[in-house]
Amino acid sequence: MIKRQGRGAMGRLVGIGLAAAITVGAVMWVTAGASDYREIKAELRHGTPRWYQTFISSGHPVGCGATAWAIVFGYWKEHKGKTKLLRGIDMPYDQQGQNDATLGLEMARIAQIMDTTYGEWQGKKYGRTTGGKMMDAEIYVKSAGYTNVSIERVRGLEYDKFRRVKEWLDQDRPVIILTNESDAAFTSLHYPVIEKATLRQKKVLGKWHDRDVYYSVNMGDGGANKEIWVREYGVNDHPHTGSFSMFLLNIR
């Protein structure tokens, strides 16, 4: 029920309203409430395999690109019915160290198809796959007998990339993200696998505005997921991770 107020009461209400706000020029600042914020989320239905880089014959790690694709293919094999992927691997599969022969063979095949290059920087061996060559993982999928396959590389604004990632996660498809860790210099490029995506928004003048974007990712190191922040409005409260591309796989 709405009760009408007299002129005196209305005047007191106006006075209270003005006292509750701070006016600067023509702008009135009012503290935002919890209802002025919301989160939009998407998440895989299952966790991805906790696999990590195997060694190739030269003693180099196979590369994070091949490892990321192996993790994605393992998910498709176990949860999406694409059982011909990753020959010799029965899902779920626990990796037997960095010298795992069965898993290592499949990772090496993927790396070879993608022309992964190997080298050493400051005494540390590495395997490196360019973003363009990551698209060649499609050849591996087709060699397993799945000819109706596509890989899309998505670049651009973080908010736009988030919406494509959300679309894929909503369909229970893992996504690979190409990131940059500024303190790692030449070996800074990395390919984690996204399992969960979150976008934070704030309501301003009745409209929702995008603010923060962060992901829960499998880093391909055999450990627990890590939260990475690729966009944070205002002053960063979390370590920033550069995000270059998303790789969206679909096998029909």
Write up this protein.
This protein is α+β, with helices and mostly antiparallel strands and 252 residues long. The protein is globular, with a radius of gyration of 24 Å. The strands form 3 sheets. Strands 3, 6, 7, 8, 9, 10, 11 and 12 form an 8-stranded antiparallel β-sheet that branches. A two-stranded antiparallel ribbon has the order 1-2. A two-stranded antiparallel ribbon has the order 4-5. Residues 1-31 have low confidence and may be disordered. It has helices spanning 7-19, 64-79, 101-113, 131-134, 137-143, 158-170; strands spanning 22-24, 27-29, 37-43, 117-121, 124-128, 149-154, 175-180, 189-190, 193-204, 207-218, 226-231, 242-251. The protein has one domain (35-251): Cathepsin B, Chain A (Alpha-Beta Complex).
- Kindly name the structural category: alpha+beta
Low-confidence stretches: 1-31
Q: How helix-rich are the residues, as a percent range?
A: 25-40%
Instruction: State the distance separating the first and last CA atoms.
Output: 57 Å
E-strand count: 12
User: What is the string of SSEs from the N terminus onward?
Assistant: HEEEHHEEHHEHEEEEEE
Major β-sheet annotation: 8 strands, antiparallel
In CATH, what is the class?
Alpha Beta
Strand content: 25-35%
Which descriptor suits the 3D outline?
Answer: globular
Overall radius of gyration: 24 Å
CATH-defined fold name: Cathepsin B, Chain A
